[in-house]
Specification:
697 residues; mainly alpha; 22 helices; 0% strand
Length: 697
């Protein structure tokens, strides 16, 4: 086996590593937290592939790796350090910014440091599913975070979603404004307090971010001074400034520990400082190899450190949060490569194979996780496409009235909720899917607004009709002719019900005016009827007493005198007044008394019948009971038809017995019935004539 075992088998991404820093894309800081992406060298693409061994640190100058070659005359150690390959930091994807933020982009990149690593890797929630109110609430919580850079991407995503919803909301309001005929010639203005609150919260966040940047700049300048001092101490050790190799090794380890905790520095200084540090570190290790005992102690220490990393990697395989485990693995790779030195030759291959094998396993687990998530995202995409198609289908349906439109609006609102709850879709089609959804909703709103624009004219006509009814009701509300006005007012109310919707802004006023006029009239009507009821109860008491007195009436036996007495009682009864509807039974009792009196008179049946009919007809007229009068007329007309039919039938029967003699008993009986029916017919016709005369009066 070759003594120069390549330690760069595979990185945390599962890819072959040719450059020493490829696996440290997101790195670890000294306190085992995710490191600043900016602490990585900036020109990885320019690195010449090297064959790194455990006995070599990466990027040592040729003069150190091959001491048999002489240094180029006149070149200093700093000049040699400048020859080291430069490294390029992992690219950080910035969220979309407004123009006002663009000037600070470079400053933000410089200031991010450790703070925003959490934000870059955490999965951003589906903020598109939240309402503008919920987005504002979420921004309020995030803006209160002390570490503003850790929530930067979340806040920018919230801002993007808020303004997307806000712009759509304003467009709808503009359409409503433009469709309102009363707004012609006016400029559109809309005050939305929630947006003012959102902007204030966002400005608070921007101020905190700016303060964070200023503070970070100061800290990085101080860190730079510390790192330069560490390099100077390391240079002295590499030049043999220690009494023994043991002391030198101890001091180097202390310097490496200080270096790990020194913190980030300005980006434009990083490459030069980083290369200088490792240049002098390589020089020290080159001298260290001359002391086998010190070297073996260092190998043992390095082995123990790498075994700890392997143990931690095994634990990461059990971590449920794959993203969290992967981020930590990247940090472990950085520590393995940059912070821990080589191990002995006999352990070199085994220890690296263990670490790379665990790396592969975690990489495969991560790939499986992303495959499952991708499958779920594709299912979500399918559901969202179905929802978009359903909204388009609803938008293309013919809807004829407001009631149906309310149903359609409810359906689209329900589909909107389902869309927002459907979950994430693949990133490459996210914008396309969101645009398709917005277009579908916009299409529906356009069709809906066109419908309501067309009915504006109808609503204006309805308003004019209702205003006419209001005017008519106001003209009649103080009328004293309750009998005639009540029917007119009832008809006005029926006409009101048949008129459709009016413009919303006039709806309440026109309805309140109409209701006030109607209530005014019917309150007066009810007050009058209450007064009538009191009079009617008094009339009932009088009639009850009068009816008791009529039981003692004795007729004289003289037809004319007795008839006048009966008629006088009828007049007296009528003069007592009307009784309540619930007490009408007393009229029936009075009619029975009259019937008994008429029976005692020596008058024809027809005459008695007509007197009683006239009395009943007068009672109906006094009660103003037109319905019962109409029913009485219909009943009489039916009786006339029945009697005429009966007479016609009897006369037809006579014609079939033409040879019968006049004194035939059957013929005589038929003729008698015909005469009786004719008399009855005259009585019914007389009654009909009286009703017609009454209705004409």
């Amino acid at each position: 086996m070759s003594d120069h075992k390549n330690d760069n088998l595979q990185n945390a991404e599962g890819e072959n590593i040719k450059e020493a820093t490829e696996s440290f894309e997101h790195g670890y800081t000294s306190d085992s937290k995710p490191a600043d992406n900016n602490e990585l060298p900036e020109d990885t693409n320019d690195i010449t592939p090297l064959t790194e061994t455990e006995g070599q640190m990466p990027f040592a100058p040729e003069e150190i790796l091959n001491p048999e070659k002489e240094k180029v005359a006149g070149e200093t150690e700093e000049a040699l350090a400048e020859k080291l390959p430069q490294h390029e930091a992992a690219e950080t994807v910035e969220p979309a910014k407004d123009e006002e933020d663009s000037d600070n982009d470079n400053d933000d990149e410089e200031a991010e440091g450790d703070d925003d690593d959490h934000d870059h890797h955490d999965e951003i929630p589906e903020y598109g599913a939240l309402s503008m109110q919920d987005l504002t609430t979420e921004l309020e919580k995030l803006a209160a975070t002390e570490n503003v850079m850790s929530v930067r991407n979340h806040i920018e995503e919230i801002r993007k979603e808020f303004y997307s919803k806000y712009n759509e909301f304003i467009e709808e309001k503009k359409e409503e404004f433009s469709h309102d005929s009363d707004n012609e010639g006016l400029d559109f203005e809309y005050n939305f307090p929630l947006k003012n609150k959102f902007d204030d919260l966002y400005n608070t966040y921007r101020t905190k971010k700016s303060n964070h940047f200023k503070k970070t700049q100061t800290e990085r300048k101080s860190n730079l001074e510390n790192r330069l001092a560490i390099i100077e101490d390391l240079k002295n050790l590499a030049d043999g400034g220690a009494e023994s190799m043991g002391d030198a090794l101890k001091q180097v380890n202390e310097l490496r520990e200080k270096w790990k905790h020194a913190g980030p520095i300005p980006r434009d200084k990083y490459n030069h400082v980083w290369n200088n540090f490792h240049f002098h570190l390589e020089r020290f290790y080159d001298h260290l190899h001359l002391d086998r005992e010190a070297r073996d102690l260092d190998f043992k220490h390095n082995l123990e450190q790498k075994q700890k990393i392997i143990s931690r990697t095994e634990e990461l395989l059990q971590e449920e949060d794959v993203n969290k485990a992967f981020k930590e693995l990247q940090g472990l790779h950085k520590i393995w490569k940059e912070d821990i030195g080589p191990v002995s030759r006999e352990n070199r291959e085994e220890i690296w194979n263990q670490f790379s094998d665990l790396t592969r396993q975690l990489h495969d687990k991560r790939e499986g996780f992303f495959a499952e998530r991708r499958e779920q995202e594709n299912e979500n995409l399918s559901r969202k496409k179905t929802i978009i198609a359903q909204i388009e289908n609803i938008a293309n349906q013919e809807v004829a009235n407001h009631g149906e439109w309310k149903g359609q609006i409810g359906k689209v609102e329900a589909l909107r909720e389902l869309f927002f709850k459907a979950g994430r879709v693949p990133k490459e089609v996210n914008e396309e899917t969101w645009a398709a959804f917005k277009n579908a909703v916009r299409h529906f709103n356009s069709v809906k607004n066109a419908f309501y624009k067309n009915i504006k004219k109808d609503q204006q006509e309805n308003l004019n009709k209702k205003l006419e009814l209001v005017e008519k009701a106001n003209a009649l509300k103080d009328s004293e002719d309750f009998q005639a006005t009540t029917e007119v007012m009832k008809q006005i109310q029926e006409d009101w019900k048949k008129i459709g919707h009016v413009p919303r802004k006039y709806s309440d006023k026109v309805w309140n005016d109409f209701k006030a006029a109607c209530n005014h009239y019917f309150d007066r009507l009810h007050a009058q009827r209450d007064a009538y009821k009191k009079d009617e109860m008094e009339a009932f008491d009088r009639k009850k007493e009068y009816l008791d007195n009529m039981k003692d009436i004795e007729l004289s036996g003289d037809h004319k005198t007795d008839l006048d007495v009966i008629k006088k009682h009828i007049e007296n009864w009528k003069a007592l007044g009307r009784v309540p509807q619930s007490r009408k039974h007393i009229e029936g009792k009075f009619n029975k008394v009259l019937d008994s009196l008429f029976d005692k008179l020596s008058m024809s049946k027809k005459e008695a019948e007509m007197v009683k009919f006239s009395n009943r007809l007068e009672q109906l007229a006094d009660d103003d009971d037109t319905r019962r009068i109409d029913n009485e007329q219909i009943f009489i007309m039916r009786k006339i038809d029945e009697v005429q039919s009966e007479i016609l039938q009897l006369e037809n029967n006579i014609q079939f017995i033409s040879n019968a003699k006049a004194d035939n008993p059957f013929v005589k009986e038929v003729n008698k019935n015909i005469e009786r029916h004719k008399e009855e017919l005259k009585t019914w016709k007389e009654k009909l004539s009286k009703i017609k005369n009454l209705k004409q009066e």
